[in-house]
Amino acid sequence: MELESKLLPTKEAVKKFVNDGDLVSFGGFTHGIPFALGHEMIRQKKRNLRVCKETPDLLVDQMIAAGCVKHTIFSWAGNPGVGLLHAFRRAVEKGVPQPITHEEYTHFIMAARYFAGASGVPFIPISAGVVGSDLIKHRKNLKTMNCPYTSKKLCLVPAINPDIAVIHAQRADKEGNIQMWGIFGSNKEIAMASEKVIVSVEEIVDEEIVRRDPNRTIIPGFHVDAVMEEPWGAHPSYTQGYYDRDNGFYIEYDQATRTVEGMEAFLNEWVYGVENRREYVKKLGAEKILKLMVKPYYSFPVNYGYYG
Amino acid sequence: MKKKYAKDYTLQELMVVVAARELRDREIVFVGIGIPQLATILAQRTHAPNLVLIYESGTIAAKPMRMPLSIGDPTLASGTAGIYNFIETFSYLLQRKFIDVGFLGGAQIDKYGNINSTVIGDYEQPKVRLPGSGGGCDIAALAKRVIIIAPHEKRRFVEKVDFVTSPGYLDHPEAREKLGLTGGPSAVVTTMGVLRFDDATKEMYLDLYHPGVSIEQIKENTGWDLKISPSVKETEPPTEDQVTLLREKIDPEGYYLKR
């Protein structure tokens, strides 16, 4: 009997697996931010999402501006290497276009919350500076305790188990085994902490390619609900070995979205104005694409050994 | 051999050189982009060849082929010695106490070295909403020491921060210890001088003033009555070799060292 395929086009995967009101965790840490999937959520007018991502980046900023988000959970809400996120700021400071609630932590605490969620325990203890930070006054769910073994002061962080993890990676086979290299962020942890997982990849490859290099797998196919091929699916962020980060795009976005009108124009042009990622890439244009493509720099094959 | 001091250098270059002097060989440094990154690379190419650069994104002992423009730049991954997941970076490296030095900056810094990068004004009704902690609070608590880098401005150097994002010495000399925190800020490198912390009071004091800057000017640009070290002196300028390295090898495109 044929193995079950997890292949599903982006549009259908978002329709089938993302529900209004879901707690959605986005993967990527500067590297591999799932813009193709996030844009599709905007086009499908998903509403009242609670969104968690250490660094919301431009993607969550756009989803806030588009009215998809009612709550954000994060640890650093800025435009990496550039400055601030304007839609996020407008929503938090002025309630424009609508108020959002937010819940912030430190990077370590976010990572630890995912790790606890992925490990199936209700919390984990960490040594944390948050005990000396004003943050702890605003986060009633962070507790402290003295270690029962050493009496050292510890911070307890609760597990987080999102409804769905949304991730972009380099490659997968059609069973949904996801392989990634470069900067991982919390991709493995958010996937294992979440109920459902959808992943866009640069390439769907033969099962043999995955199985010849199993150490590169970050999420096993049995826990992936849908996988789809979306070349350039992380632009303007990057996919290691496939294309570079479009730093100019991040700078232009900063300039273009300082007003509500500018933000709307941006969404109309880059999200609502295209049907899918293929059109988006066409819109980016050949010149930009060539500029962002990266010269190959291969690793050497390793020998796993044939134990047949 | 007598050092040949540079006559032509910018303030940014001076800050990089001063920050580099704070680093010792074989230390493991949690780097941020901009001045911290340049200072660490400069130290690595001069007096501290065995420094290990670790970026928050999990790249270990990175050897970037071009100037990284963010802490998650792909050039940090290609050719690096190893890459950890986010949770591994913060637990195996930082919490496990492998990090000797962390660099931090912030919108507000107070006399005990507490840093605010969260909000200006009230937390619930902020005048300006800033990015937040990121790894700042974690680094402030778990690195063995912290070097703060910041422009020296009165609105930035305030008596009390609006919000403690990353704890320095909090509000009294034993406050950190009571919370079980070790380490703490060791130096503040600004556009005007170098400040350190009194062993007994943990209050920031002026240790060095940059060439061309007066102590009076520094006091005027600090939001509290800044104490001055009895042995205060002028900052040693960069050497010609250091400036050449920065301009020709480390940041030849002038990404961070604009001239």
What is this entry, summarized?
The complex is a heterodimer of chains A (308) and B (259). Chain A has 308 residues and is an alpha/beta fold.
Structural key phrases:
heterodimer, A: 308 residues, alpha/beta, Glutaconate Coenzyme A-transferase, 9-stranded mixed β-sheet, 3-stranded antiparallel β-sheet, 12 helices, 20% strand, globular, B: 259 residues, 8-stranded mixed β-sheet, two-stranded antiparallel sheet, 8 helices
How many runs of DSSP E, i.e. beta strands of chain A?
14
Tell me the name of the CATH class of the largest domain in chain A: Alpha Beta
- Any idea how many domains of chain A? 2
Helix-strand sequence of chain A:
HEHEHEEEHEHEHEEEEHEHEEHHHH
**SSE pattern of chain B, N- to C-terminal:** HEHEEHEHEEEEEHEHEEEHEH
CATH architecture of chain B: 3-Layer(aba) Sandwich
Q: Uncertain runs of chain A with pLDDT below 50, 5 residues or more?
A: none
Radius of gyration of chain B: 18 Å
Number of extended strands of chain B: 14
**CATH topology heading of the largest domain in chain A:** Glutaconate Coenzyme A-transferase
Counting helices, strands and paired strands, the structural category of chain B is: alpha/beta
| Helix percentage of chain B | 10-25%
Number of helices of chain A: 12
Largest sheet of chain B: 8 strands, mixed
Shape of chain A: globular
